[in-house]
């Protein structure tokens, strides 16, 4: 993968100019967990240039924009701003750095693709051909959400030409806010996660190899959405079961995580590594808390676990219950006792039952690829272009 240095914002991106560049405004880092924005925008980049403009990094020295090619057709732009600036000064600085990106890369006709409404503070003056709001989460319910977020989102709904939601429950909550809103739930790269089925007897990652079975695995961000009390209760009741927890700790104090001999915190792993970890699990779990932060989530990891061939136990997250729980693909349990019984059922699953479950899972997942999801989005974009 080719990269461009931190000062590359002063130079044009060396790619043939195509109409309607995409300027994506994101609260997520491109090199953090590989998830919905990366899946969609890497596919978008096969048609047009994509500039992924991240939230600022506080750094000494004059303001600057680091520009790196993260993927063919995708450039990640990271503003570096000095410490001590007010919110208004920070937004002014971002506006200036974004203008420099437009100027040096001959960006003229463009789509603004928002993941965070807060970016309106430095982009509301831009005359975009089309404005997209991919509302993947209810950000206002997350810990440390900016006070202005709800008002900014209302403004973004007024400006947007098309809105996508990350799941059906979020669509139901937002559909009255926009005339052109569409539920675009989580999809899956089946081939990638199906590698877990083929590597089940292969060499395990070193930090997982010594963990005894049965293993209950989870990958994802460890934040206020994780039900640490449920996790601790199950681990305490079944000390012979081992939880393998893969992912970064964000927004919560790591000291609040349960520290027990049978809970193993392995930290963040690359997207390409996840199937190797999954291959060594006996059951995949979604121990999410039931709170405001999880009310509208649609976990991408649900179909990823299923593509790996694993039985799954989850708490009653609405977009997991429907469709996965209702169709018998995921066991739903909210209390420690129910969670334990559900895991026991998964561990007791034998050959023919397992084969039948996986055959039904594969039939479902065959209609859920990120490729087909992006093709649907592209069709919605083309409709916007025609209307414009």
Keywords for this structure?
disordered N terminus; 15 strands; six-stranded parallel beta sheet; 388 residues; alpha/beta
The value of Rg in angstroms is 22 Å
Number of helices: 14
Q: Give the rounded overall mean pLDDT.
A: 93
N→C terminal distance = 36 Å
Helix-strand pattern, N to C? EHEEEEHEHEHEHEHHEHEEHEHEHEHHH
Instruction: Name the structural class.
Output: alpha/beta
General shape: globular
Give the helix proportion (percent range).
Answer: 25-40%
Task: Indicate the low-confidence ranges by residue numbers.
Answer: 1-10
Q: Give the biggest beta sheet.
A: 9 strands, mixed
Number of strands: 15
Percentage beta strand: 15-25%
Q: Can you walk me through this structure?
A:
This protein has 388 residues and is of the alpha/beta class. It is 36% helix and 18% strand. The chain contains 14 helices and 15 strands. The protein has helices at residues 36-44, 87-104, 120-123, 149-159, 168-174, 190-198, 206-209, 228-237, 274-279, 301-307, 318-325, 336-348, 351-365, 370-387, and strands spanning 21-25, 50-53, 57-58, 64-71, 74-81, 110-114, 130-135, 162-165, 181-183, 215-219, 242-246, 263-267, 283-286, 312-314, 331-332. The strands form two sheets. Strands 1, 2, 3, 4, 5, 6, 7, 8 and 9 form a nine-stranded mixed beta sheet that branches. A six-stranded parallel beta sheet has the order 12-11-10-13-14-15, with helices on both faces. β7 (130-135), α4 (149-159) and β8 form a beta-alpha-beta unit. α6 (190-198) crosses α10 (301-307). The two termini are 36 Å apart. The relative contact order is 0.11. The model is unreliable at 1-10 (pLDDT under 50).
């Amino acid at each position: 993968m080719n990269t461009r240095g931190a000062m590359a914002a002063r130079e044009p991106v060396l790619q043939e100019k195509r109409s309607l560049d995409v300027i994506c405004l994101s609260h997520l880092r491109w090199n953090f967990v590989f998830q919905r924005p990366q899946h969609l925008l890497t596919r978008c980049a096969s048609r047009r240039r994509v500039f992924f403009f991240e939230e600022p990094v506080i750094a000494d020295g004059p303001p600057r924009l680091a520009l790196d090619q993260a993927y063919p057709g995708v450039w990640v732009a990271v503003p570096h701003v000095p410490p001590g600036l007010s919110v208004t000064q920070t937004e002014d600085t971002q506006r200036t750095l974004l203008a420099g990106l437009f100027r040096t890369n001959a960006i003229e006709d463009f789509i603004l693709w928002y993941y965070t409404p807060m970016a309106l503070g430095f982009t509301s003056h831009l005359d975009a051909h089309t404005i997209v709001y991919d509302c993947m989460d209810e950000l206002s319910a997350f810990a440390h959400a900016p006070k202005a977020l709800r008002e900014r989102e209302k403004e973004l709904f007024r400006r947007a030409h098309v809105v996508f939601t990350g799941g059906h429950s979020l669509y139901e909550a937002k559909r009255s806010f926009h005339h052109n809103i569409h539920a675009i739930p989580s999809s899956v790269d089946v081939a990638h996660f199906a590698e877990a089925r083929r590597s089940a007897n292969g060499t395990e990652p070193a930090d997982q190899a010594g963990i005894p079975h049965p293993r209950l695995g989870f990958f994802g961000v460890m934040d206020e959405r994780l039900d640490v009390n449920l996790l601790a209760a199950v681990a305490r009741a079944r000390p012979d079961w081992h939880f393998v927890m893969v992912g970064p700790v964000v927004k919560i104090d790591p000291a609040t995580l349960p520290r027990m001999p049978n809970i193993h915190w392995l930290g963040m792993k690359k997207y390409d590594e996840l199937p190797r970890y999954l291959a060594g699990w006996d059951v995949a779990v979604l121990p999410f808390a039931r709170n405001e932060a999880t009310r509208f989530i649609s976990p991408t990891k649900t179909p990823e676990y299923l593509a790996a061939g694993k039985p799954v136990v989850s708490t009653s997250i609405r977009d997991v219950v429907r469709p996965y729980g209702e169709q018998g693909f995921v066991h739903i349990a909210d209390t420690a006792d129910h969670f334990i019984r559900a895991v026991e059922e998964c561990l007791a699953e034998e050959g023919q039952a397992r084969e039948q479950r996986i055959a039904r899972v594969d039939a479902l997942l065959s209609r859920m690829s990120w490729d087909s999801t992006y093709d649907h989005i592209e069709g919605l974009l083309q409709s916007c272009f025609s209307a414009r």
